[in-house]
Structure formats: C-alpha cells, structure tokens
Design brief:
elongated, 217 residues, 2 helices, mainly beta
C-alpha cells in the first residue's frame, strides 16, 4: 500500500496453512508466499479502489459587501483506499485509512438569496496535515482468512490543494448556516510514498459539508 509501518497487531484466524518447498521447508509465517504458491497457474489480478473523499468543516466568513466574502476555518477529511492482489480464492487485501486536518482560505461570491437559502460559488486553497492513519491487511487462502495485521502509518505529509465549488447554504440563524458544496480540487504531490486518490487522480470531485458563521461588515 506504499506505507511506512511502525507498530503492528497480528491476529491469526483458523488453522495455519503451510506451504512446503523443495527442501521440505515451510512458510507458515509468510502467508504472502503461501498465496503465491497456491496461485501458480491461476489468473492473478491487482486492484486498487480509492473512495471519494468527504470534507467536514467549520468556517468563519467575513463579508466584504453583500455578495463577496473571505473565509477560513478548520476541516476534517478521511481518505480510504482498498487493495486486492491475487486470484479469486487466494488473495491479499489491504484497507488504508488516513485522517487529515486542514485550514482553508477561500473567496466566496453569493449568486442568489431567497429567505434563508443562499446559492454561491467559491474558490481558494486548502492546506491539510495527515494526523493519523493505519493499514489493515488480510491474507485469504482457499477463501478463508488465515492472518490479519494492522499497522500504524508513520508518514504524516502536508497536502496542498486548490479548489472551486458551487454551494448551497441554509441559514438556521441570521449569521449561522449549514452548507453543502460539491466541487473540484487539484492536489499537488505531497512528496510521500502514501498511495491515495490524490496521487492517482490529482484533479477530482469532492463534497464538502459543514457549518459557517458569517461576520457582517
């Protein structure tokens, strides 16, 4: 999964599977080697699947005039990815989850307002820091899980991106609203070995939810 591994937790499930080589040695402690041996002559595939990131945020906007405002705040993002390598019966799977905390700086332009509903467009930059993450790996032989491992991720890169979005906000109070923003972002290379949707597709769609407090001029 392209991760740096520190502490790990190992859980064995079911009876151990032992593959024996020409010298009568066994690889009981190396399930990946078992999988490769059982897959000899079979079709083997490697698949990656990155889930769509969703951002949750709390923002404070300062209104420059009736339509234009600048804003910042705090966001939380969970990035999740799945990987599978092997045949239909014998394979390795990995699930990677990364947690990011970010600070956005945006310019927001109000397009339309009706009672408590606002439609707007926004654009800006987002700096996100990976604060934690882990990988869960499972080894399956003959459709039975034989071993599972969980690793903490040491790599904590800083992720920079630029974004544009169209948003809708419902004002529950005069200055406090709940917003939803479908948009598009471009993510720059963070210089780490982590495999994420940002690496595979630097330009991708995202969905932002949160609460916004607006300070009138």
């Amino acid at each position: 999964m392209g991760t740096l591994k520190a502490s790990k937790t190992i859980t064995s499930i079911g009876d151990p599977v032992i593959a024996t080589g020409p010298d009568d040695s066994d690889w009981e402690d190396n399930p990946m080697l078992d999988i490769n041996i059982f897959n000899q002559g079979k079709e083997v595939k490697t698949e990656y699947k990155h889930r769509l990131p969703v951002h949750i945020g709390v923002k404070v906007a300062y209104a420059l005039n009736e339509r234009l405002s600048i804003e910042s705040g705090l966001t939380y993002t969970r990035l999740a990815s799945d990987m599978k390598d092997g045949s239909q019966e014998n394979y390795f799977t990995g699930e990677q989850k990364l947690n990011y905390v970010g600070i956005p700086v945006n310019v927001k332009y109000n397009i339309f307002a009706y009672k408590r509903l606002n439609l707007y467009g926004s654009a800006g930059v987002l700096a996100e820091k990976c604060v934690s993450g882990y990988v869960t790996e499972e080894y399956v032989i003959n459709n039975a899980t034989k071993k599972s491992e969980t690793f903490d991720i040491d790599s904590k890169p800083l992720q920079m991106s630029v974004n544009a979005a169209a948003g809708v906000q419902f004002n529950v109070l005069d200055n406090i609203g709940i917003y939803a923003e479908p948009g598009v972002s471009y993510h720059f290379d963070d210089g780490s070995s982590l495999q994420t949707i940002y690496k595979e597709k630097p330009l991708n769609f995202n969905l932002n939810f949160g609460v916004r407090y607006t300070i009138d001029k």
